[in-house]
Design goal:
Elements (H helix, E strand, L loop, with lengths): L1 E6 L7 H15 L3 E6 L25 H10 L5 H12 L2 E7 L7 H10 L29 E7 L16 H14 L4 E2 L3 E3 L7 H16 L17 E2 L4 E2 L28
Parallel strand pairs: 1-2, 1-3, 3-4, 4-5, 4-6
Antiparallel strand pairs: 7-8
Helix pairs in contact: 1-6
Length: about 270
Amino acid sequence: MNILIVFAHPERHSLNGALLDIAVAELQSQGHEVQVSDLYTMHWKAAVDRSDFPDLPTGERLKVASASSHEFAADGLTDDVKAEQEKLLWADTVILQFPLWWFAMPAILKGWVDRVYACGFAYGVGEHSDRRWGDRYGEGVMAGKRAMLLVTTGGWPEHYSERGINGQIDDLLFPINHGILFYPGFTVLPPFVAYRVDRLDDARFEIVSEQLRKRMRTLATTTPIPYRKQNGGDYQIPTMELKPGMETPGAVRFALHVAEQKPCLRDCED
């Protein structure tokens, strides 16, 4: 399996760096090919601006979506963006690794998404009509590939529980899992989250390390989050509202877009 890890932490000699080394070593020991995009080491340009669209005429107003679409179709995107797109097409599984900062991914990783997810590549693909609203949310260029988040946070698990002060971790990560990964077609695995990392002693580090090794060993068999596909019949077109009666009992808000988990009979992982 080809695996791409997009790594977003400014200090390579950090807990995140150690977890990256553990993940890469375990994956390679299983015979997988691994590439790492270390965004800080790469000095990744995070902000989208006119320099991303070399063919945009001087003085013309920048409309990012249309400029992105034009440059992608003309093979005119910048070399750094095209290199990351090639990695995504090469990968069977993509892992986004980052510390949770202010309830979101670091800006450099969001900037990677903003620039690499060009119109015509990750969005704006497929038929757009009164019958179909494009290939997205379960379909698209990344369909057939798996993806997951590897996240560290200083907070306790209880802080991110259903009644926790920070909000439930599934809700906080929903915009990334559903909106950044599932949108272009990835099959999304449950995230790997390491809690209380600022207070991680050696014993706890060994526990987290072994948990991560297990997740790396089971990427192909871990049961994915059962997000509802946009064009699978659950949504009304063109409003894209969930059809009445489709919701899982008790589900509200983000959880409405997760189908009821079917009983697992084989090849399932915790």
